[in-house]
Amino acid sequence: MIRIYRNYYRRNLTELANIEEFDQTYRSSDAISWYMKETFLYKQVNDEKKSNKNNNKKKWKFFRFINKTLQTQDVDLLYQFRFYIIDQDEMTDYQSSIGNLISISGYLLTSSERSVAHDFATKSAKSEGVVRALFEYLWI
User: Fold this and answer.
1) Considering only CA atoms, which of 61, 49, 46, 44 is closest in space to residue 6?
2) HSE-CB for 132 with a 13 A CA cutoff
3) How confident is the model at residue 23 (pLDDT cuts 50, 70, 90)?
4) Which of 16, 64, 80, 134 is the most buried (most CB within 10 A)?
5) How many domains does the chain have?
6) Of the candidates 72, 106, 121, which is a domain's last residue?
7) Which pLDDT does position 114 carry in this prediction?
8) What is the pTM of this model?
């Protein structure tokens, strides 16, 4: 993985320095902090996720490790809630991701009060072919 990133960022001295630091100092207990730094690792994981390419499983090892780390470490979490109206197919995709990390591009309007998001759900008009859903997000 490191060799791939060094080649990809060979003309970017800042990212090459980040890659070197990662290579020399990385420990599994640092997985989340490395992802949150928004360096080469953050960019690669998010670019891969956005493109929906599954041809390079090595890039996803780190992302899966972050997910596993979140499940075992004591980290400060912020619970937020959001109401969605989505089609049934999209809901099925989300249901298969329960308990895992998901990536969302864009802004989210959330509430720290479950009841506020629930009120939006109960007041919205029902439509055929769509599902009203209340999502609970955990932010680290």
Assistant:
1) 44
2) 12
3) very high
4) 80
5) 2
6) 72
7) 83
8) 0.42
Contact call for residues 137 and 77 (beta carbons, < 8 A) = no
- Domain span at residue 88 reads 78-139
Q: Cα 84–79–101 angle (5° rounding)?
A: 70
Q: What span, in angstroms and rounded, lies between the C-alpha atoms of 31 and 105? A: 21
Contacts of 61 (CB under 8 A, 6+ apart): 1
> What is the rounded CA–CA span in Å between residue 135 and residue 110?
9
Q: Which residues pair with 13 in a beta bridge?
A: none
pLDDT tens by residue, 62-82: 666 666 666 665 556 677 878
Interior angle at CA 67, CA 3 and CA 52, nearest 5? 65
